[in-house]
Specification:
This protein is an alpha+beta fold. The chain contains nine helices and 17 strands. The longest helix has 15 residues. Bound molecules: 4'-deoxy-4'-aminopyridoxal-5'-phosphate (PMP). 4'-deoxy-4'-aminopyridoxal-5'-phosphate binds next to α6 and β14.
Protein backbone atom coordinates (compact mmCIF):
# COMPACT_ATOMS: atom_id res chain seq x y z
CA UNK A 1 0.00 0.00 0.00
CA UNK A 2 1.28 3.45 -0.87
CA UNK A 3 1.04 6.05 1.89
CA UNK A 4 1.62 9.82 1.58
CA UNK A 5 4.97 10.53 3.26
CA UNK A 6 3.62 13.68 4.90
CA UNK A 7 0.70 14.28 7.24
CA UNK A 8 -0.85 17.70 7.73
CA UNK A 9 -1.11 18.68 11.41
CA UNK A 10 -2.69 21.91 12.71
CA UNK A 11 -1.41 23.95 9.78
CA UNK A 12 1.87 22.33 8.87
CA UNK A 13 3.17 19.25 7.15
CA UNK A 14 5.05 16.69 9.25
CA UNK A 15 6.55 13.31 8.44
CA UNK A 16 4.23 10.29 8.53
CA UNK A 17 6.35 8.71 11.28
CA UNK A 18 5.94 11.78 13.50
CA UNK A 19 2.14 11.81 13.34
CA UNK A 20 1.69 10.25 16.80
CA UNK A 21 -0.42 10.82 19.91
CA UNK A 22 0.02 10.12 23.63
CA UNK A 23 -1.74 7.01 24.94
CA UNK A 24 -3.69 9.22 27.37
CA UNK A 25 -5.22 11.18 24.50
CA UNK A 26 -8.84 12.02 25.33
CA UNK A 27 -10.20 10.62 22.05
CA UNK A 28 -8.65 7.23 22.67
CA UNK A 29 -10.56 6.84 25.93
CA UNK A 30 -13.82 8.66 25.28
CA UNK A 31 -14.32 8.49 21.53
CA UNK A 32 -14.00 12.25 21.05
CA UNK A 33 -13.07 12.45 17.39
CA UNK A 34 -14.72 13.54 14.17
CA UNK A 35 -13.37 12.62 10.78
CA UNK A 36 -13.92 12.42 7.04
CA UNK A 37 -13.24 9.99 4.23
CA UNK A 38 -12.57 11.54 0.84
CA UNK A 39 -11.29 10.12 -2.45
CA UNK A 40 -9.08 11.61 -5.11
CA UNK A 41 -9.42 10.11 -8.59
CA UNK A 42 -7.16 9.93 -11.59
CA UNK A 43 -8.47 12.13 -14.41
CA UNK A 44 -7.14 13.35 -17.76
CA UNK A 45 -5.94 16.45 -15.93
CA UNK A 46 -4.25 14.59 -13.08
CA UNK A 47 -5.63 13.75 -9.64
CA UNK A 48 -8.89 15.42 -8.64
CA UNK A 49 -10.50 15.35 -5.19
CA UNK A 50 -14.19 14.50 -5.25
CA UNK A 51 -16.51 16.95 -3.46
CA UNK A 52 -13.73 18.26 -1.25
CA UNK A 53 -15.64 21.33 -0.05
CA UNK A 54 -18.67 19.28 0.97
CA UNK A 55 -16.51 16.82 2.91
CA UNK A 56 -14.66 19.58 4.74
CA UNK A 57 -17.97 21.29 5.50
CA UNK A 58 -19.25 18.03 6.98
CA UNK A 59 -16.08 17.79 9.09
CA UNK A 60 -16.74 21.30 10.42
CA UNK A 61 -20.39 20.43 11.02
CA UNK A 62 -19.42 17.30 12.96
CA UNK A 63 -16.99 19.38 15.03
CA UNK A 64 -19.62 22.06 15.67
CA UNK A 65 -22.07 19.49 17.05
CA UNK A 66 -19.41 18.36 19.54
CA UNK A 67 -18.31 21.92 20.39
CA UNK A 68 -14.87 21.25 18.96
CA UNK A 69 -13.22 24.36 17.59
CA UNK A 70 -11.10 23.61 14.56
CA UNK A 71 -8.74 26.56 14.13
CA UNK A 72 -8.49 26.29 10.36
CA UNK A 73 -11.09 27.49 7.91
CA UNK A 74 -12.77 25.22 5.40
CA UNK A 75 -10.68 26.75 2.63
CA UNK A 76 -7.46 26.13 4.54
CA UNK A 77 -8.42 22.50 5.10
CA UNK A 78 -9.20 22.14 1.38
CA UNK A 79 -5.92 23.77 0.41
CA UNK A 80 -3.98 21.51 2.78
CA UNK A 81 -5.64 18.48 1.18
CA UNK A 82 -4.78 19.64 -2.31
CA UNK A 83 -1.12 20.10 -1.31
CA UNK A 84 -1.02 16.75 0.48
CA UNK A 85 -2.36 14.88 -2.55
CA UNK A 86 -0.21 16.82 -5.01
CA UNK A 87 2.99 16.26 -3.03
CA UNK A 88 2.22 12.58 -2.40
CA UNK A 89 2.61 11.89 -6.11
CA UNK A 90 -0.30 9.41 -5.95
CA UNK A 91 -2.72 9.40 -8.87
CA UNK A 92 -5.59 8.18 -6.74
CA UNK A 93 -5.93 8.03 -2.99
CA UNK A 94 -8.18 8.00 0.03
CA UNK A 95 -7.88 11.06 2.25
CA UNK A 96 -8.56 10.99 5.98
CA UNK A 97 -8.98 14.29 7.83
CA UNK A 98 -9.51 13.82 11.58
CA UNK A 99 -10.03 16.26 14.46
CA UNK A 100 -9.98 15.06 18.05
CA UNK A 101 -9.54 15.99 21.67
CA UNK A 102 -5.88 15.42 22.47
CA UNK A 103 -3.77 15.74 25.58
CA UNK A 104 -2.02 18.86 26.81
CA UNK A 105 1.07 17.23 28.29
CA UNK A 106 2.02 20.44 30.14
CA UNK A 107 -1.41 20.52 31.81
CA UNK A 108 -2.89 17.03 31.46
CA UNK A 109 -6.59 16.38 31.93
CA UNK A 110 -7.97 12.85 32.10
CA UNK A 111 -11.68 13.17 32.83
CA UNK A 112 -14.71 12.87 30.57
CA UNK A 113 -15.07 16.68 30.47
CA UNK A 114 -13.55 17.37 27.06
CA UNK A 115 -13.12 21.14 27.39
CA UNK A 116 -9.56 21.17 28.85
CA UNK A 117 -8.25 18.91 26.07
CA UNK A 118 -6.80 20.64 22.99
CA UNK A 119 -8.20 20.02 19.52
CA UNK A 120 -5.76 18.33 17.19
CA UNK A 121 -6.43 18.21 13.47
CA UNK A 122 -4.63 15.93 11.02
CA UNK A 123 -4.99 14.96 7.36
CA UNK A 124 -3.36 11.80 6.00
CA UNK A 125 -3.71 9.98 2.69
CA UNK A 126 -3.07 6.53 1.29
CA UNK A 127 -3.85 4.47 -1.73
CA UNK A 128 -6.96 2.44 -0.83
CA UNK A 129 -8.41 0.02 -3.35
CA UNK A 130 -12.00 -1.10 -3.56
CA UNK A 131 -13.46 -1.26 -0.06
CA UNK A 132 -15.75 -4.23 -0.56
CA UNK A 133 -13.41 -6.00 -3.00
CA UNK A 134 -12.50 -5.49 -6.66
CA UNK A 135 -15.22 -7.82 -7.91
CA UNK A 136 -17.95 -6.37 -5.73
CA UNK A 137 -18.64 -3.43 -8.05
CA UNK A 138 -19.65 -5.86 -10.77
CA UNK A 139 -20.96 -8.97 -9.08
CA UNK A 140 -22.43 -7.44 -5.94
CA UNK A 141 -22.08 -8.42 -2.30
CA UNK A 142 -23.95 -10.69 0.10
CA UNK A 143 -25.17 -8.88 3.19
CA UNK A 144 -27.27 -9.51 6.28
CA UNK A 145 -29.59 -7.45 8.41
CA UNK A 146 -27.77 -6.83 11.66
CA UNK A 147 -29.10 -7.83 15.06
CA UNK A 148 -27.57 -4.54 16.25
CA UNK A 149 -29.78 -1.45 16.05
CA UNK A 150 -28.34 1.69 14.48
CA UNK A 151 -27.53 4.31 17.14
CA UNK A 152 -30.41 6.69 17.78
CA UNK A 153 -29.71 10.26 16.80
CA UNK A 154 -30.72 11.69 20.16
CA UNK A 155 -27.99 9.69 21.88
CA UNK A 156 -25.23 9.94 19.28
CA UNK A 157 -26.17 12.32 16.47
CA UNK A 158 -25.81 10.53 13.15
CA UNK A 159 -25.44 13.85 11.34
CA UNK A 160 -21.95 13.91 12.81
CA UNK A 161 -19.29 11.60 11.42
CA UNK A 162 -17.87 10.92 14.85
CA UNK A 163 -15.40 8.21 15.84
CA UNK A 164 -17.73 7.04 18.61
CA UNK A 165 -20.46 6.17 16.07
CA UNK A 166 -18.15 3.58 14.61
CA UNK A 167 -18.31 1.37 17.69
CA UNK A 168 -21.87 0.68 16.52
CA UNK A 169 -20.57 0.20 12.96
CA UNK A 170 -17.93 -2.24 14.22
CA UNK A 171 -20.54 -4.40 15.97
CA UNK A 172 -22.52 -4.51 12.72
CA UNK A 173 -19.45 -5.23 10.60
CA UNK A 174 -18.00 -7.94 12.88
CA UNK A 175 -21.32 -9.76 13.12
CA UNK A 176 -21.61 -9.68 9.32
CA UNK A 177 -18.08 -10.98 8.73
CA UNK A 178 -18.40 -13.76 11.29
CA UNK A 179 -21.69 -14.77 9.67
CA UNK A 180 -20.00 -15.05 6.26
CA UNK A 181 -21.37 -11.79 4.82
CA UNK A 182 -19.51 -8.80 3.37
CA UNK A 183 -21.53 -6.20 5.19
CA UNK A 184 -24.44 -5.67 7.57
CA UNK A 185 -27.47 -3.40 7.26
CA UNK A 186 -28.73 -1.85 10.47
CA UNK A 187 -32.35 -1.06 11.26
CA UNK A 188 -33.13 2.08 13.22
CA UNK A 189 -34.69 2.00 16.69
CA UNK A 190 -38.18 1.87 15.12
CA UNK A 191 -37.26 -1.15 13.02
CA UNK A 192 -36.97 0.68 9.71
CA UNK A 193 -34.01 0.27 7.38
CA UNK A 194 -31.18 2.66 8.21
CA UNK A 195 -27.82 2.02 6.50
CA UNK A 196 -24.77 -0.23 6.28
CA UNK A 197 -21.90 -0.02 8.76
CA UNK A 198 -20.18 2.49 6.47
CA UNK A 199 -22.54 3.02 3.54
CA UNK A 200 -25.92 4.47 2.66
CA UNK A 201 -28.45 2.27 0.94
CA UNK A 202 -30.71 2.52 -2.11
CA UNK A 203 -33.52 0.24 -3.34
CA UNK A 204 -34.77 0.17 -6.91
CA UNK A 205 -38.45 -0.62 -7.46
CA UNK A 206 -40.06 -0.39 -10.89
CA UNK A 207 -37.26 1.91 -12.06
CA UNK A 208 -37.62 4.25 -9.08
CA UNK A 209 -34.99 4.84 -6.41
CA UNK A 210 -35.94 4.64 -2.76
CA UNK A 211 -33.61 5.53 0.10
CA UNK A 212 -34.06 6.01 3.84
CA UNK A 213 -34.49 9.64 4.94
CA UNK A 214 -32.08 11.41 7.31
CA UNK A 215 -34.60 10.63 10.08
CA UNK A 216 -33.67 6.93 9.84
CA UNK A 217 -30.45 7.70 11.77
CA UNK A 218 -28.23 7.74 8.69
CA UNK A 219 -25.10 9.71 7.97
CA UNK A 220 -25.94 12.33 5.31
CA UNK A 221 -23.68 10.66 2.76
CA UNK A 222 -22.03 12.73 0.09
CA UNK A 223 -22.13 9.81 -2.36
CA UNK A 224 -25.84 9.42 -1.49
CA UNK A 225 -26.36 13.06 -2.37
CA UNK A 226 -24.37 12.63 -5.59
CA UNK A 227 -26.43 9.61 -6.65
CA UNK A 228 -29.71 11.39 -5.89
CA UNK A 229 -28.61 14.34 -8.03
CA UNK A 230 -27.32 12.16 -10.88
CA UNK A 231 -30.50 10.04 -10.83
CA UNK A 232 -32.78 13.07 -11.02
CA UNK A 233 -30.70 14.49 -13.85
CA UNK A 234 -31.09 11.35 -15.94
CA UNK A 235 -34.81 11.14 -15.25
CA UNK A 236 -34.91 8.55 -12.47
CA UNK A 237 -37.43 9.36 -9.76
CA UNK A 238 -36.05 9.37 -6.19
CA UNK A 239 -38.06 8.99 -3.01
CA UNK A 240 -36.69 9.35 0.52
CA UNK A 241 -38.98 7.32 2.74
CA UNK A 242 -39.11 4.78 5.56
CA UNK A 243 -38.38 1.25 4.39
CA UNK A 244 -39.44 -2.03 6.02
CA UNK A 245 -36.88 -4.80 6.39
CA UNK A 246 -38.93 -7.10 4.15
CA UNK A 247 -38.73 -4.56 1.31
CA UNK A 248 -35.02 -5.38 1.12
CA UNK A 249 -35.94 -8.91 0.04
CA UNK A 250 -38.60 -7.87 -2.47
CA UNK A 251 -37.02 -4.96 -4.30
CA UNK A 252 -35.72 -5.25 -7.88
CA UNK A 253 -32.23 -3.95 -7.11
CA UNK A 254 -30.32 -2.84 -4.07
CA UNK A 255 -27.01 -1.03 -3.71
CA UNK A 256 -24.73 0.70 -1.23
CA UNK A 257 -23.18 4.13 -1.69
CA UNK A 258 -20.19 5.60 0.11
CA UNK A 259 -16.81 7.18 -0.47
CA UNK A 260 -15.06 3.89 0.26
CA UNK A 261 -17.72 1.58 -1.26
CA UNK A 262 -18.57 3.95 -4.16
CA UNK A 263 -21.66 2.34 -5.76
CA UNK A 264 -21.69 -1.35 -4.80
CA UNK A 265 -24.55 -3.66 -5.83
CA UNK A 266 -26.06 -6.03 -3.25
CA UNK A 267 -26.99 -9.45 -4.59
CA UNK A 268 -28.52 -11.02 -1.48
CA UNK A 269 -29.82 -10.06 1.93
CA UNK A 270 -30.01 -12.73 4.66
CA UNK A 271 -29.30 -15.28 1.87
CA UNK A 272 -32.43 -14.18 0.01
CA UNK A 273 -31.58 -13.26 -3.58
CA UNK A 274 -32.31 -9.65 -4.53
CA UNK A 275 -33.92 -9.41 -7.98
CA UNK A 276 -31.94 -11.49 -10.46
CA UNK A 277 -29.02 -11.84 -8.03
CA UNK A 278 -26.70 -9.68 -10.09
CA UNK A 279 -26.08 -6.00 -10.80
CA UNK A 280 -29.33 -4.54 -12.09
CA UNK A 281 -29.73 -2.14 -15.01
CA UNK A 282 -30.51 0.93 -12.92
CA UNK A 283 -27.56 0.24 -10.61
CA UNK A 284 -25.28 -0.17 -13.63
CA UNK A 285 -26.53 3.04 -15.22
CA UNK A 286 -25.98 5.04 -12.03
CA UNK A 287 -22.56 3.45 -11.48
CA UNK A 288 -21.53 4.34 -15.05
CA UNK A 289 -22.65 7.95 -14.67
CA UNK A 290 -21.04 8.23 -11.24
CA UNK A 291 -17.71 6.89 -12.49
CA UNK A 292 -17.78 9.27 -15.45
CA UNK A 293 -18.36 12.22 -13.11
CA UNK A 294 -15.59 11.28 -10.67
CA UNK A 295 -13.12 10.83 -13.53
CA UNK A 296 -14.07 14.17 -15.05
CA UNK A 297 -15.47 12.51 -18.18
CA UNK A 298 -18.79 14.32 -17.93
CA UNK A 299 -20.01 17.36 -15.98
CA UNK A 300 -21.61 16.96 -12.57
CA UNK A 301 -25.35 17.68 -12.41
CA UNK A 302 -25.97 21.41 -12.88
CA UNK A 303 -22.27 21.77 -13.71
CA UNK A 304 -21.55 21.78 -9.99
CA UNK A 305 -17.84 22.01 -9.09
CA UNK A 306 -17.49 18.49 -7.70
CA UNK A 307 -13.86 18.00 -8.73
CA UNK A 308 -10.89 19.86 -7.29
CA UNK A 309 -7.84 19.30 -9.45
CA UNK A 310 -4.61 19.21 -7.48
CA UNK A 311 -2.21 20.21 -10.26
CA UNK A 312 -2.04 23.94 -10.84
CA UNK A 313 -1.89 23.49 -14.62
CA UNK A 314 -5.15 21.54 -14.51
CA UNK A 315 -6.79 24.25 -12.41
CA UNK A 316 -5.79 26.84 -15.02
CA UNK A 317 -7.11 24.77 -17.91
CA UNK A 318 -10.47 24.34 -16.23
CA UNK A 319 -10.79 27.85 -14.80
CA UNK A 320 -14.14 29.35 -15.71
CA UNK A 321 -15.51 25.91 -16.44
CA UNK A 322 -17.60 25.47 -13.30
CA UNK A 323 -14.79 23.95 -11.33
CA UNK A 324 -13.56 21.86 -14.15
CA UNK A 325 -15.96 18.97 -14.47
N1 LIG B 1 -22.93 5.92 6.43
C1 LIG B 1 -21.88 5.69 7.23
C2 LIG B 1 -22.11 5.17 8.60
C3 LIG B 1 -20.58 5.93 6.74
O1 LIG B 1 -19.52 5.68 7.52
C4 LIG B 1 -20.41 6.40 5.43
C5 LIG B 1 -19.02 6.65 4.90
N2 LIG B 1 -18.58 7.94 5.19
C6 LIG B 1 -21.54 6.63 4.65
C7 LIG B 1 -22.79 6.39 5.18
C8 LIG B 1 -21.42 7.19 3.26
O2 LIG B 1 -21.05 8.54 3.32
P1 LIG B 1 -20.19 9.21 2.13
O3 LIG B 1 -20.91 8.91 0.87
O4 LIG B 1 -20.19 10.65 2.46
O5 LIG B 1 -18.86 8.60 2.18
Amino acid sequence: MQIASKVWHNGEFIDWKDARVHVMTHALHYGSSVFEGIRAYDTKLGPAVFRLTEHMQRLLNSAKIYRMEIKNTRDELCQATVELVRDSGMKECYIRPIAFRGLDEAKPSFGVNPFPNPIECYIGAWDWGKYLGEEALETGVDVCVSSWTRITSNSLPTMAKAGANYMNSQLIKMEAILGGFSEGIALDDRGYVSEGSGENLFLVNNGRLITPPLGAAILPGITRDSIIKIAKEIGIEVEETTIQRAALYLCDELFFTGTAAEVTPIRSVDRITVGEGNRGDVTKKLQDEFFKVIRGERPAPNNAPWLTYVNESAEKKTAGNSGGN
